[in-house]
Amino acid sequence: xxxxxxxxxxxxxxxxxxxxxxxxxxxxxxxxxxxxxxxxxxxxxxxxxxxxxxxxxxxxxxxxxxxxxxxxxxxxxxxxxxxxxxxxxxxxxxxxxxxxxxxxxxxxxxxxxxxxxxxxxxxxxxxxxxxxxxxxxxxxxxxxxxxxxxxxxxxxxxxxxxxxxxxxxxxxxxxxxxxxxxxxxxxxxxxxxxxxxxxxxxxxxxxxxxxxxxxxxxxxxxxxxxxxxxxxxxxxxxxxxxxxxxxxxxxxxxxxxxxxxxxxxxxxxxxxxxxxxxxxxxxxxxxxxxxxxxxxxxxxxxxxxxxxxxxxxxxxxxxxxxxxxxxxxxxxxxxxxxxxxxxxxxxxxxxxxxxxxxxxx
Length: 361
Hints:
The protein has helices spanning 8-17, 96-112, 127-135, 149-161, 172-186, 191-209, 221-225, 229-232, 245-253, 256-269, 281-288, 292-295, 303-309, 315-318, 325-328, 331-341, 351-360, and strands at residues 3-4, 28-31, 34-37, 46-48, 57-58, 67-69, 74-77, 80-83, 119-122, 140-144, 165-169, 214-216, 273-275, 296-297, 300-301.
């Protein structure tokens, strides 16, 4: 695979101009003897850690002896590796209506451009995945334990949208089987990474079994539009260094490369290719033009996105709060339960990670 995500012409033009958001959904790979990865790291890319691999690289870390992630926004040539793309820092839009209209146009254009052949949608009932469900004619899937928040929220949202829903019921057996597969695909054993990947991976497995090879996901919306508590509470929250909500947004956007690497690898290993329209350059560009109160307004996170979504969604969905997938699906709770049942007690250091490691030894 020489180049993922975009045409050679588009990537060549971006390299020539230095434009970090050239109208693509991300890219990574080799072009004209240069190795490159887009500014957000939306596609995984790995090289040999020691540099003695003869310039070897791959989108799959399993192809390399000692893989390390190639940094987002960088290019490698014979002269070495250097950063060529940085996130722009535009002046924020000062008019609320224009800010919402900018977000609406970017989101709707990006979602509507997704082809539906072989497509399914990962649907949790929140505003992000509901925007996909409302505008794309593709089946909806939710993963969770029977009493989980995500299953209940997805059912109620699907009813409001007049859509059918396919539920992937999680079980302890499914978790124990999936954990080694996730670790093998991602190279990660830390508890949080596995917890996040579990509902995604098991959804993808079911989607692939049902004959679909692409899965639309709402990834990126929380980072871009102010969905995290630590962003909303900046600068008081110690988890961010930023002095404003807008600067905290940029901090969490910078973490996307690591997160997306995990998600893409887990989904591909389960048999589907992810499609993330809310991470298209035009959406990123719109989000970076938002001011603090467009991101978080009082107690409302993702204010501008929710306002923009009201043209596509019932208000009850557009304004709905949602838990992170690992908690909403109860995957985190039940992985912890399995760890304790196996003798890895909470008093032990990082007991869930120790349990995960035991499953792959």
